[in-house]
Amino acid sequence: KIGFGSKKKPRHILPNGLRKFRVYNVADLELLLMHNRKYSAEIAHNVSTRKRAAIIARAEQLNVSVSNRNAKLREEEDE
Fold first, then answer.
1. Are 72 and 55 in contact (CB under 8 A)?
2. How far is it, in rounded angstroms, from Cα 41 to Cα 2?
3. Cα–Cα distances in Å, from 19 out to 3, 34, 74, 75?
4. pTM > 0.85
5. Over 90: is that where the pLDDT of 74 sits?
6. What is the maximal distance between C-alpha atoms in the chain?
7. Which residues pair with 66 in a beta bridge?
């Protein structure tokens, strides 16, 4: 074997035991409905804040975990 690397079985597995699935919109999230015990949604970097909020809200309804749930989300300050 040439080079260093991880074993094939645990490769691409997150510390919580799930694999990543990149999500661009809410429709992509529907694919994880039956696979929420095996895959974790990861919101793509070029998704807007408004779509991120919709994706996170739908993920909670479907009981799908989101690995980067807090990325690019700011709390609105009431003044």
1. no
2. 32
3. 24, 14, 27, 28
4. no
5. no
6. 62
7. 41
Listing DSSP states for 24-70 in one string gives SSHHHHHTTSTTTTTEEEEE-TT--HHHHHHHHHHHHHHT--BTTTT
CB distance 65 to 36 below 8 Å: yes
63, 36 in Cβ contact below 8 A? yes
Mean pLDDT of 16-38: 94
The Cα 41–Cα 47 span in angstroms is: 13
Residue 74 CA to residue 33 CA, distance in Å, equals 27
| CB within 8 Å of 31: residues ≥ 6 apart | 21
Structure tokens at 76: 């609105």
Do residues 24 and 44 lie in contact, with contact meaning Cβ atoms separated by under 8 Å? yes
